Amino acid sequence: MGLKSRVPCVLRPGFYSKGTHRPKPSMQQLALELAPPPPSLANFVAGRNGPALAAVRELVGASPLERFVYLWGTHGSGRTHLLRAAAAAAAQAGIASHYVEGGSLAAGELPASGFAAIDDVGRLDAEQQIALFDLYNRVRAEDGRLLIAGDRAPRDLALREDLRTRLGACVAFELHPLSDDEKAAALRGEAAARGLRLDDGVTAYLLSHVARDMNTLTAVLDALDRASLERQRALTVPFVRETVTAITAKAQETQRDAKE
């Protein structure tokens, strides 16, 4: 198994008829393709986080019912993806939009009439906590929108009491990391959308040898799809192992060269 399922008699870009030249794929180019795509609401794999995704979509929509949303979850649950994606979606909708990591928040830095995403609020120092408290009040007064994220529920944050009270008034959602089964199902879905079929061995290899966030897994799948098209190879475990090893090594070499 592990063979590609393709539409008969139709050549996709990268396929070559018999006897024509088949260029060898550039490992440099494939390594660059390992860079995860920019976070978007469309490429967020929700899993059990469907309600949170729906709330974020509404927040950046035309007329949100709720203008304050708080997301919390452990590392790998998708917090930063959703905040960056929401900021991008708001900007695309013509809303003044800002994404700020908690440790970088400055007093008076953000306007209150647009959309602001404040990540990792557990890292705020005393002055930054005052800045977020002030921003919250200004957003409420000026009909802005605020999306905030932390690694725990508002009541458990080591923040000043009045700020915890404000955060506790937000519509809050706990984000759950994808299980291995959910990641495997998502990978199979992404593969099917590309006209590929992943067998269980290939899926298991990717989950055990590649960074386990879905952005990276999807980027690796894109690179594998390109390599298999150019080399006319099925996505078998040996081919996947060979390609992932080669492009990872090339990516590491490129990073070392950039530092020198």
Overview of this protein structure:
The chain is α/β, with parallel strands linked by helices and 260 residues long. Helix content is 46%, strand content 10%. The protein contains nine helices and five strands, in the order ααβαββαβαβαααα. It has a five-stranded parallel β-sheet, with helices on both faces. Strand 3, helix 4 and strand 4 form a beta-alpha-beta unit. Helix 6 runs parallel beside helix 8 and helix 8 crosses helix 9. It is elongated. The N terminus is likely disordered.
Summarize this entry quickly.
With 260 residues, the chain is α/β, with parallel strands linked by helices. It has helices spanning 27-32, 50-59, 79-92, 126-141, 161-168, 180-193, 200-209, 214-231, 237-259, and strands at residues 68-72, 97-101, 115-119, 145-150, 171-174.
Strand arrangement, major sheet: 2-3-4-1-5
Average of per-residue pLDDT values = 84
Distance between the termini: 44 Å
Helix content: 40-55%
Low-confidence stretches: 1-32
